Automatic annotation (TrEMBL), chain A:
Pfam families: Cytochrom_B_C, Cytochrome_B. Binds 2 heme groups non-covalently. This is Cytochrome b. The keyword NADP does not apply. Belongs to the cytochrome b family. Residues 409-432 are annotated as: Disordered. InterPro entries: Cyt_b/b6_C, Cyt_b/b6_C_sf, Cyt_b/b6_N, Cytb/b6-like_sf, Cytochrome_b, Cytochrome_b_C_euk/bac, Cytochrome_b_N_euk/bac, Di-haem_cyt_TM. Its cofactor is heme b. The chain crosses the membrane at residues 43-68, 89-112, 127-149, 156-181, 201-220, 251-268, 310-330, 342-360, 372-394. Residues 232-402 form the Cytochrome b/b6 C-terminal region profile domain. Its main location: membrane.
TrEMBL record, chain B:
Residues 56-170 form the Cytochrome c domain. SUPFAM superfamilies: Cytochrome c. The chain crosses the membrane at residues 268-286. Binds 1 heme c group covalently per subunit. Its main location: membrane. InterPro entries: Cyt_c-like_dom, Cyt_c-like_dom_sf, Cyt_c1. It is found in: Membrane. Residues 1-31 form the signal peptide. Heme c binds at residues 69, 72-73, 221. Pfam families: Cytochrom_C1. The keyword Hydrolase does not apply. This is Cytochrome c1. The gene is petC.
UniProtKB/TrEMBL annotation, chain C:
Its cofactor is [2Fe-2S] cluster. Component of the ubiquinol-cytochrome c reductase complex (complex III or cytochrome b-c1 complex), which is a respiratory chain that generates an electrochemical potential coupled to ATP synthesis. It catalyses: a quinol + 2 Fe(III)-[cytochrome c](out) = a quinone + 2 Fe(II)-[cytochrome c](out) + 2 H(+)(out). The keyword Translocase applies. The main subunits of complex b-c1 are: cytochrome b, cytochrome c1 and the Rieske protein. Its main location: membrane. It is a single-pass membrane protein. The chain crosses the membrane at residues 12-34. Keywords: 2Fe-2S, Cell membrane, Disulfide bond, Electron transport, Iron, Iron-sulfur, Membrane, Metal-binding, Translocase, Transmembrane, Transmembrane helix, Transport. This is Ubiquinol-cytochrome c reductase iron-sulfur subunit. Belongs to the Rieske iron-sulfur protein family.
Length: 432, 297, 190
């Protein structure tokens, strides 16, 4: 935080020499060791750290895989099989990378929903939030291109279907969509040329993400962390130093997350993928059901819910773009949904809609599935465009605790009375 | 006034949430159409967390592959050397060497000193090839149908889920907790034993066969294994030959072929799990110790 | 210490011109960087192909590759032609012929989907106009959809025996590429 004075004291002559020339240790110390952290953060706040771990793990496993992988239409599938069957521990590193993509998205979705629930996008954290949306977008692009690389049937047909979305721009200006698609493909269909450029970009984008993450953390450290009450840190007793308090919690939850991660890597490596991707890409045979990876399913459902192709594409991109605007769409005076008796219901309805869209995205686009996809797509947008502004104005929030310390220690005098007392906050860090 | 509005809104929110839940509850069901194919889940020695291959079964399975499947299907991502490696059938190396030398589908090598490609017998380091040079030849010989390479067949097949959404969600949770990864094996087994006479009124195209497990029920492959079994198992092979037994054995062999690292994967998996659990407990205690200091303040 | 100069922000023509030239140079570098992604010379060279039709018997179909796309060539039976001719234009979701050999606003009659004098030959790009999958219906054992033509398994589009969309999410009829009969049994596509 801006008002936070540096407490770094170099302990040796070398450290002092270094500190006068490049105060890197000072920066790290002030940002990650002595940094004041709200004392009431619950375990949902550990996902920022978990996500950093995911990014580093993906980059490391990815670099190693690239030492064995060959980005050509003829050899891509063979080289993945080679990694799986012949390279020492290749199967493990590949599982780690493939499962890791899914774990990355599990963590990022929890992180996003935590932000939505506790109003972490509200002033003064708008830029922080928008940077997060950008990271999410680049993550999606990276994952999409990465999924193309094994060059299995689902890789090939997934790329064909998704890149073809741009041809809908022909509806705006004839020829525009076709020109863009051929430019993306580098040919008149998805070919090895396309694969090659996807590999190049798939290698590049994670470092773009890393750069955005630095900005994201920077913005976080300017505004300070939000917390379950949504209150700002007011006194010294509201905060604890990041190390060892927040870090001990981060590390614990990272290991709990790793248990799930390892579960999939070692016992369910194919559970999150598609059987069809173990068949080499064949431009002349379409798999019976083309389904994207699970983390794209809600957006895929929105795409298919709209009867018009161009409209579907616009809706899909709008579903992500709308996230940029929610700091201004939410009119509530309080941040945390915990103190919002009405909005709470809508929040869970929204969460349910996203899950339902995910389910519907995995089903064929016909009959009753389309009907429900339309209902939930409507609610997805209505939640941001109608519910957020209207409920925020009409709702009377519950009385907030006076401070973070009060919320934790159950301090009295907030006058909210028995039932309305924020029990969750009181129980937050210690009992979990 | 504002409270009234809020209460109405709150009620609307609750109602919408409840409605949405119940509506989807009674929802889609079987909108995809077409009668779903039920495929039984089998009990495999390599399934579950402690699963490992049954070595005599892999050897019997290889015999079935060699005597039956290899007439049309290749296994070209598996190398002869793999047959002797740990985690697989573990034949002794000398017999695999002999097997490779006599394998009917030889290896194209070259060019030789005169600049021509030539055929030579396979070695341990060579792949187990099928009889066809490429997909075109395979299709040409088999009347347009393509007998796929079997190296990945178990991983490349699965069982379609036709459950209603709530059953789907339940099954998903159960499969994740029990580590179910054997859908491909279940399907291939069901296919091999799934040949029956077509039900009355079913129109079978010429040259096609009816199969309970195959999507659309029309399959070009001849019933590969007769009811009494296709191969003669040796006395000490551990099982008697029959359609069911042959199908199980060859499925297990192919499961190993598509996932040769299965055994080391699960073994390392438990070591990693143990490490993670112990560390997590320690970190839990450490976290409590650290936060205990805050409480006192 | 900075030297004391009079108005360091003052701009004269040469400074502006110098900066502008530098900017133009930098901007024009974008062009090759964007262009390198477009189809290369090798891909463009395969722009047209010749296909011999004599081995295709009535009722059969073949698929040939053209510009990396599959082209469906079906030798239609008389029943299939008649079935396609019977359909009133008003039953078609897409009433345009989508035939690159004739005017863009031609109606999607069966005649307009083929070349005059060769109505038994249907030549189309075999890519679903919805999201680019390859419809089923080329081999005899394929499911051909509700209208006896092609059926796209991705999202359930049904095409009739003239390759016109009849049911499902696809917006347009299958595209008929530019082609011509070089002889009675040979066509040139592209």
């Amino acid at each position: 935080m801006a008002q936070h004075e540096s407490t770094y004291v170099p302990k040796s002559a070398t450290a002092r020499w270094w500190d006068e020339r490049l105060p890197l240790m000072r920066l790290l110390h002030d940002s990650f060791v002595d940094y004041p952290t709200p004392r009431n953060l619950n375990y949902l706040w550990t996902f920022g750290g978990i996500l950093s771990f995911c990014l580093v793990a993906q980059i490391l496993t990815g670099i190693v895989l690239a030492m064995h992988y060959q980005p050509s239409a003829a050899e891509a599938f063979n080289s993945v099989e080679h990694i799986r069957r012949n390279v020492n521990y290749g199967w493990m590193i590949r599982n780690f990378h493939a499962v890791g993509a899914s774990m990355f998205f599990i963590a990022v979705y929890i992180h996003i929903f935590r932000g939505l629930y506790y109003g972490s996008y509200k002033a003064p954290r708008e830029i922080l939030w928008i940077l997060g949306v950008l990271i999410f977008l680049v993550m999606m692009a990276t994952a999409f291109m990465g999924y193309a690389l094994p060059w299995g049937q689902m890789s090939f047909w997934g790329v064909t279907v998704i890149t073809n979305l741009f041809s809908s721009l022909d509806g705006i200006f004839p020829g525009l969509g076709t020109a863009i698609v051929e430019w993306l493909w580098g040919g008149y269909a998805v070919t090895g040329t396309t694969l090659n450029r996807f590999f190049s970009l798939h290698y590049l984008l994670p470092f773009v993400i890393a750069g955005l993450v630095v900005l994201h953390v920077w913005a976080l450290h300017v505004a300070g962390q939000n917390n379950p009450t949504g209150l700002d840190i007011k006194t010294k007793s509201d905060a604890v130093p990041m190390h060892p308090y927040a870090t001990s919690k981060d590390l614990l939850w990272m290991f709990i997350f790793l248990i799930m991660f390892a579960w999939f890597v070692f016992f369910l490596p194919d559970y999150l993928g598609h059987a069809d991707n173990y068949i080499e890409a064949n431009p002349l045979v379409t798999p019976p059901h083309i389904v994207p990876e699970w983390y794209f399913l809600p957006f895929y459902a929105i795409l298919r819910a709209i009867p018009d192709k161009l409209g579907g594409v616009i809706a899909m991109f709008a579903a992500i773009a709308i996230l940029v605007f929610i700091p201004w769409l939410d009119t509530s005076r309080v941040r945390s949904t915990k103190y919002r008796p009405i909005y709470k219901w809508f929040f869970w309805l929204f969460a349910f809609s996203c899950l339902a869209l995910g389910y519907l995205g995995s089903k064929p686009a016909e009959g009753v599935y389309v009907f429900w996809a339309r209902i939930f797509t409507f609610y997805y947008f209505a939640h941001f465009l109608l519910v957020m502004p209207i409920v925020g104005i009409l709702e009377t929030p519950k009385k907030l605790p006076r401070s973070i310390t009060d919320a934790v220690l159950g301090g009295k005098g907030d006058g909210s009375g028995g039932a309305a007392k924020p029990k969750g906050a009181a129980a937050a860090p210690e009992s979990r | 006034m504002k409270t009234l509005m809020s209460n109405t809104l709150r009620a609307a929110g609750m109602l919408a949430a409840v409605l949405a839940t119940s509506a989807v509850m009674t929802g889609p069901g079987n909108a995809a159409g077409g009668e779903p194919i039920h495929i039984e889940r089998e009990d495999w020695s390599f399934g579950g967390f402690f699963g490992h291959f049954d070595r005599p079964q892999l050897r019997r399975g290889f015999q079935v592959y060699k005597d039956v499947c290899a007439a049309c299907h290749g296994l070209s991502r598996v190398y002869f050397r793999n047959l002797a490696e740990p985690g697989g059938p573990m034949f002794d190396e000398a017999s695999v060497q002999a097997l490779a030398k006599d394998w009917p589908n030889q290896i194209t090598d070259g060019p030789n000193d005169e600049g021509n490609m030539f055929q030579r017998p396979a070695k341990l380091s060579d792949p187990i090839h099928g009889p066809y040079k490429n997909e075109q030849e395979a299709r040409f010989v088999n009347n347009g149908a393509y007998p796929p390479d079997l190296s990945n067949i178990i991983k490349a097949r699965t069982i379609e889920n036709h459950d209603a959404w709530y059953a789907h969600v339940f099954k998903m949770g159960r499969d994740i907790l029990t580590g179910y990864q054997e859908a491909g094996a279940d399907y291939v087994h069901a296919l091999l034993v799934g040949y029956t006479d077509p039900p009355s009124g079913f129109e079978l195209s010429e040259g096609m066969h009816y199969n309970k497990a195959f999507p659309g029920h029309q399959i070009a492959m001849n019933p590969p294994i007769p009811p009494e079994g296709a191969v003669e198992y040796q006395e000490n092979a551990g099982a008697k030959s029959s359609l069911e037994q042959n199908a199980r054995d060859v499925t297990a062999f192919l499961a190993w072929a598509s996932d040769p690292s299965l055994e080391s994967r699960k073994r390392i998996g438990w070591q990693v799990m143990l490490y993670l659990l112990v560390t997590t407990v320690l970190l839990y205690i450490a976290k409590h110790r650290i936060w205990a200091r805050v409480k006192k303040r | 210490m900075a030297t004391d100069v009079e108005d360091p922000q003052r701009r004269d023509f040469l400074i502006i011109a110098g900066n502008a030239f530098a900017a133009v140079g930098a901007a024009s570098l974008i062009w090759p960087f964007v262009q390198q992604m477009n189809p290369d010379a090798g891909a463009k060279a395969l722009a047209s192909i010749e296909v011999d039709l004599s081995p295709i018997k009535v009722g059969q179909a073949i698929t040939v590759m053209w510009r990396g796309k599959p082209v469906f060539i079906r030798h239609r039976t008389q029943e299939e032609i008649d079935a396609a001719k019977k359909v009133p234009l008003t039953d078609l979701p897409d009433e345009a012929a989508r035939n690159d050999n004739i005017a863009a606003d031609a109606a999607a009659t069966d005649e307009n989907r083929t070349l005059p004098g060769h109505e038994n030959w249907l030549v189309m790009v075999g890519i679903c106009t919805h999201l680019g999958c390859i419809p089923k219906g080329q081999s005899l054992s394929d499911t051909k959809g509700d209208f006896g033509g092609w059926f796209c398994p991705c999202h359930g589009s049904h095409y009739d025996t003239a390759g016109r969309i009849r049911k499902g999410p696809a917006p347009r009829n299958l595209e008929v590429p530019t082609y011509d009969f070089v002889s009675d049994t040979k066509i040139k596509i592209g």
